[in-house]
Amino acid sequence: MSDVAVGLDVGGTKALAVLVTRQGEILDELRSSTPHDSHGGAGAATAKVLAEQVATFAQRHGLDAATLPIGIGMPGMVRRDGRLAFAPNLQTVSGASFPELLNESIGAQLVYMENDGNCAALGEYAWGAGRGIDNFVMVTLGTGIGGGIIANGELVRGQSGFGGEIGHMAVQARGALCGCGGYGCWERYASGTGLARLTLEWANEGRLPELTALRGGAQNVRGEDVTRAAGEGLEEAVTLMNDVAWWLARGLANLIAILDTGHFVIGGGLSVAADLLLPNAREYLADLTFGYDKRPPVVVAPSDLTVHAGALGAAKVAFDRQP
Ligand SMILES: [Zn+2]
User: Fold this and answer.
1) From ligand 1's centre to the CA of 72, what distance in Å?
2) If 9 and its partner were Cys, which of 158, 184, 271, 310 is the partner (CB 3.0–4.6 Å)?
3) pLDDT at site 38
4) Please, what CATH class does the domain formed by 4-120+308-321 belong to?
5) Distance, CA 250 to ligand 1 centroid (Å)?
6) CA of 90 to the centre of ligand 1 (A)
7) Does domain 132-303 have CATH number 3.80.10.10?
8) pLDDT per position as a tens digit, 297-323
9) What's the gap in Å between 121 CA and the centre of ligand 1?
10) Buried b (16+ CB within 10 A) or exposed e, 277-302
11) What average pLDDT does range 169-176 have in this prediction?
12) Which residues, by Cβ under 5 Å, contact ligand 1, an ion?
């Protein structure tokens, strides 16, 4: 049983690697760009980057890749057998088996895969904002919305391993087209790209006049312009962020109705705007949640582990699943 494990969090643009102790302490950390070329077959280019990260840790810390537990968090549908069924935001890795690829390249024998949102949930549950909370939902507001459901102290993986894809819950029947091919998915409204989409829509409708003038045209107004201006109190930007907060609450209320969860941990890139989103989302929840006043107070808390949640959770997966 190894005292350390590697956690790899593979995103659409970056791959973050951490070397972690059983107590969740990060001993070392590496960041690489995620390649998007498909040479060598599904996932080969990405696996090469991950193998280099593991090899660097092994060399720096005198570890053997063959006996080092390695967990990989992937943005997509990860089967229980570790094969990646589908990654809408990282198409070149769809179908790849990273345990096989890392075994071939660096002789790694203990490689385990899990969905990245599920990893973030496990990370927060072990060492972050979900510690001691046996029923909570992790919500990562990034390019899309990732998620992981902890129910009765267990990760909800579902029959195939695809559980917890909360971002693809439809919140608007016949709404905006999603990368998954569906319409009206939650992540088209309350994620980073959701904010970008709403920003463009509002700017084109003339509802962001000051930002449009400032940026020299509706097409130039970006989501980050809105978060910055909302932080400075510009009313049109505050109003748009309130709309995003409403969409966030809309999805959380659905999850409460289904799971009877009373606790959410909010992470991901857009959570830098947590101060702008969470207070309003909490208020909207009171209106949108079925039987709100019959329930204990709902907690909507920011992530503790922030950018490391997914990688730490991937390491936790490796610790838990190694034989
Ligand atoms: Zn979708």
Assistant:
1) 23
2) 310
3) 80
4) alpha beta
5) 16
6) 14
7) no
8) 999 999 999 999 999 999 999 999 999
9) 20
10) bbebbbebbeebbeeeeeeeebebbb
11) 95
12) 168, 178, 180, 182, 185
**φ, ψ of residue 308 in degrees (nearest 5):** -90, -5
Report residue 187 as tokens.
């992540």
Residues of CATH 3.30.420.40 domain(s) within the chain?
4-120+308-321, 132-303
**How many Å lie between the centroid of ligand 1 and the Cα of residue 160?**
18
Cα 255 to averaged position of ligand 1 atoms, centre (Å): 16
pLDDT in tens, 71-85: 999 988 999 888 889
**Ligand 1 center from residue 185 Cα (angstroms):** 5
User: Checking DSSP bridges between strand 111-115 and strand 70-74, what pairing results, if any?
Assistant: parallel
- Average pLDDT for residues 205-232, to the nearest whole number? 96
* Ligand 1 geometric centre to CA of 157 (Å): 18
234 alpha carbon to ligand 1 midpoint, in Å? 31
| Distance from Cα 321 to the centre of ligand 1, integer Å | 30
**pLDDT score of 180:** 87
Please tell me the pTM assigned to this model. Answer: 0.94
Q: How far is the CA of 27 from the centre of ligand 1 (A)?
A: 36
Mind listing the pLDDT tens digit for each residue in 191-207?
A: 999 999 999 999 999 99
174: number of Cβ within 10 Å = 7
Q: What is the mean pLDDT of the chain?
A: 94
Of 280, 273, 283, 281, nearest to 303 (Cα)?
273
